[in-house]
Amino acid sequence: ANSEDYAVALVVTGDRNVIVAGYSTGVGSDYDYTTIAYAATGLPLWTNRYNGSGNGSDYANALIVNAAGNIVVTGRSVGNSGLDYATIAYSPAGLPLWTNYYSGPRNSDYANAVAADQNGNVFVTGNSTAGNFRYDYATVAYSNEGTPLWTNRYNGPLNDDDQAVSVAVDSLGRVVVAGCSDGDYVTVIYSNEGIPLSTNRYVGGTLLAGLALDQDDNIYLTGSSFEAVGSGLSTYHIATVKYFVQPIMFVENPRDQIVDPGATCSFSTAVVGKTPLAYQWYFNSVGLTGETNSTLTIPSASLAVQGTYTVVVSNAHASVTSAPARLTVVLPPQFESITALGSHHFRLSFRATSNLIYRVQVSSNLVDWVDFWNIDSSSNTFQFDDYNPTPRPQRFYRAVFPP
Fold first, then answer.
1. Phi and psi at residue 304, in whole multiples of 5°?
2. Closest of 351, 338, 357, 350 to residue 395, by C-alpha
3. What is the pLDDT of residue 390?
């Protein structure tokens, strides 16, 4: 429309084409995403514009070229229901490949950054208004073909504004999202599959400007830090922070198991780390000979193998220990005593596995059972009372697990 045009991002492709993205006033459409490709000589190759379905102002904010050579542009776009993330992929020749939207709980969503991994998967992050009308980080993953893979949101402990401004992917495929949360820098790391791995907060990092990774996957943040310098006076400083990122991180810790005697059970773990990786399983802090895989299988559970299991995972850079997982073997309840405490008042006890909840049931005919009581005990002795003023010709009891 021969009016305002703003460039906001630039990349150079592997064949040295120059890709520029921004937003530009259209004819009857306000601002539109605008993506332009130039040859290395400056010769214009193609131009693509995008006008959202709401025919409002659409602002492209970030641009990448992924491993497949496709150009991916993201930002915020006016849709039929409000402001959405709008992410568009173009082929190297400028052919539109796919367009995807993300609309949060309040239809007010701003994509601020995009990154890609070595497989061409695309990760978009920004801020999205939550149910309390405050912003959360919202990170969305797409395959190279545009298939949505996962979405994660982050809300800080103060339930205030959280705005993600940058995203990067490290050499292990971990997705690093950084921004400002409750007035601090906050960095969230996800596995490539979207599982949260860690969260770090730098108190006082007020306005994050940039994120970078080095060859060892360490994280660098920079931006502005607010400081009160006197009565009614304040100033900003540059605050730059480096984080050492663990070279091995647990995606999945072993999980507690509750099994019957003689049952087969397994503990497994999943980690992100530089290969080769070595595993060693421990039972009650004692190493298990030959148990050096990511999965530990116990073929026949018994009281002898009941206890705590951990796994230590190592590579050339580090050695980390999983959270403990407990194996509990469920013993069949064995009633031991019944004591008359008064008219129609009885105290019963049975032995079973400690720290589990058993359901006690009663019956008058050994056919129709009625739930009577849920009971637990820190020892293997369980005790309960049954009191009823109405005489009963007979009464049967049993205890069952699970409750």
1. -70, -25
2. 338
3. 80
Helix (H, G, I), strand (E, B), or coil: what is residue 108?
Answer: strand
- What does the alpha-carbon distance between residue 21 and residue 290 come to, in Å, rounded to a whole number? 56
CA distance 227 to 91: 47
> What is the predicted pLDDT for the residue at 387?
87
Other CB atoms closer than 10 Å to residue 190's CB: what's the count?
A: 24
Average pLDDT (87-101) is 97
What backbone phi and psi angles, to 5 degrees, belong to 283?
-120, 120
Residue 254 contacts residue 309 (beta carbons within 8 Å): yes
Please spell the DSSP secondary structure of 360-378, one letter per residue.
EEEESSSSSEEEEEEEE-S
- Determine how β-strand 257-259 pairs with β-strand 325-329: parallel
DSSP conformational letter for 67: T
Q: Residue 318: pLDDT band by 50, 70, 90 thresholds?
A: very high
| Per-residue pLDDT band at 403 (split at 50, 70, 90) | confident
* Tokens describing residue 353: 């596995």
Q: Please state the pTM of the whole predicted model.
A: 0.86
Output the six-digit token pair for 103. 């609309």
- Rounded-to-integer distance, Cα 129 and Cα 116, Å: 24
Q: Which two tokens stand for residue 370?
A: 């009625």
Contact assessment for residue 98 and residue 144, using Cβ atoms and an 8 Å cutoff: no
Do residues 179 and 166 touch, judged by C-beta distance below 8 A? yes
CA 302, 307, 308, 313 torsion: positive or negative?
A: negative
Gap between the Cα atoms of 330 and 328, Å rounded: 6
Residue 225, H or E segment: strand 219-230
Question: How far apart (Å, rounded) are the C-alpha atoms in residues 242 and 115?
Answer: 20
Phi (first) and psi of residue 151, to 5 degrees: -135, 135
Q: Is the peptide bond before 276 cis (omega within 30 degrees of 0)?
A: yes
Instruction: Determine the distance from the C-alpha atom of residue 121 to the mean position of all C-alpha atoms in its chain, rounded to a whole number.
Output: 17
| φ, ψ at 138 (rounded to 5°) | -140, 120
CA nearest to 134, candidates 165, 163, 177: 163
Task: Give the pLDDT confidence of 242-285 residue by residue, as tens digits.
Answer: 999 999 999 999 999 999 999 999 999 999 999 999 999 999 99
CA distance 10 to 21: 6
Distance CA 352, CA 346 (A): 20
Q: Which amino acid is at 243?
A: Y
* Segment 358-381, tens digit of pLDDT: 999 999 999 999 999 999 999 999
